[in-house]
Amino acid sequence: MGEGAGARMFPVVAEVEGGEGAAGHDEDSATPRPLPPDTRGSGRAGRMVASLAPPEIAREVRARFGAFMRDRIDPGAAERDRTATPISRDLLREAGALGLLGFTVPSIAGGAGRSWREWGWVLHEIGYLSGDTSFPMLLAYLGTLSKMLFDTGRDDLIHRYVRPMVAGARFGGFAWSEGHDPFAFQTTVEETPSGYVIDGMKGPIADGLIADVFMVFARDRRTDDLVTVLVERDDPGVSLTPYPATGLRASGMARLHLDRVPLPRGRVLVSADGLSYGQRFLNERRLEMPCWALGRMRALLETCVAELAERIRYGLPLTEMQTIQAAIGRMHAGVETSRMVLDNVLARIGDGLHDPLWDPPLALAKYHVIREALAMCRTLQDILGGAAVFQAAPYERAIRDLSCLNAIAGTMLTIEVDLGILTVGDVELRRRPHPNRHHEPKGEP
């Protein structure tokens, strides 16, 4: 093969594949490993596998949080996944001490006061570096909850919840879903002489086994409107049951059962139009999830290429075979187009151009990145063979984690319907005659 793009890209290290890649891995290798800084580089320009984050953010993440992820989060990742054990509250408390739980919360409440755009970059790098995909997912959920509670402007909530959340002493859960149509709420709340009573079931909740306070959305029995309340884990009538998925098993997914739980009046966050309030959280998740998911995709792609370069088949490294090169090219195209889409959305956010309730570009970003993540999982399975399914190899757990995003991100068909409705409405609106527009008679001028 001549010089150029198809020439040998990596040195030959291994002489034998070990079957279909099942052998040759130990427990320490069962996680996609990012390249070290000196080979990966710290910039974006000219890199085929580039970071979403600017160089200064990538360096900050490595300097501030890299050792914590390497020494504290990664070592127990495989065992937590095997047993569906949540990341411990002690580890999350350490994350809070490092500033990871209040990144966008203003300093007046103990946070760092950084921008949402910067937080997206940080989550991307953490998704790239962390050996446990549940970790950046939890950071995103916990950070959004604390920021939403801060934005209420209520001193009582900031003192009781936000400050402890930023410090890693309390953790919040978002109780929206009930396991069916996302807008057919069956959990109800009713006013009583002493406050309110809430009854129903919520789940899955991403960090249900970790959270000690839940932002719950329920239908008002009197008005039929959606109300948002806070329920604490220790409230009478509250119980939790584990609800693990096939991936992201260290997040602590659970169902929240509410058996006529009494609530004081101060626990009501929104007494009407809770739907719009909930959309704020969902809108932020539409950005943050693809940011950390793309980081995981980068790590998988780099790990895959480095390993295939060391496997020999018919006397050649696999990376010199055009079918493998084409597969790597497809995965690179998915990663790079995802980076470009997210980069554009983050720029809009930095300029304050996004809709805080439902922003079509944010929805498109989530839609595109999740589709590409799922496509990457299938391609990895096609070209890696056994290495893609055995626990000792660095792919199986990450593939399961990314495969879960299709469900956890919300039904992708729902996004297609929403975007279709908006497109039809936009076109029909533009086709309507303007009431002040005078139409010239047809014919020769």
Task: Furnish the topology, listing elements before pairings.
Elements: H1 37-40, H2 55-73, H3 77-83, H4 89-97, H5 116-129, H6 134-150, H7 155-167, E1 172-175, E2 188-192, E3 195-205, E4 213-220, E5 226-232, E6 238-242, E7 254-263, E8 268-270, H8 274-308, E9 312-313, E10 316-317, H9 322-350, H10 360-384, H11 396-403, H12 405-408, H13 412-431
Parallel strand pairs: 1-4, 2-4
Antiparallel strand pairs: 2-3, 3-7, 4-5, 5-8, 6-7, 9-10
List keywords for this structure.
Butyryl-CoA Dehydrogenase, subunit A, domain 3, 445 residues, alpha+beta, 13 helices, two-stranded antiparallel sheet, disordered N terminus, 3 domains, 46% helix, eight-stranded mixed beta sheet, Butyryl-CoA Dehydrogenase, subunit A, domain 2, Butyryl-Coa Dehydrogenase, subunit A, domain 1
In short:
With about 450 residues, this protein is an alpha+beta fold. It has 13 helices and ten strands. It has three domains: about 25-35 and about 275-425, Butyryl-CoA Dehydrogenase, subunit A, domain 3; about 40-170, Orthogonal Bundle (Butyryl-Coa Dehydrogenase, subunit A, domain 1); about 175-270, Butyryl-CoA Dehydrogenase, subunit A, domain 2 (Beta Barrel).
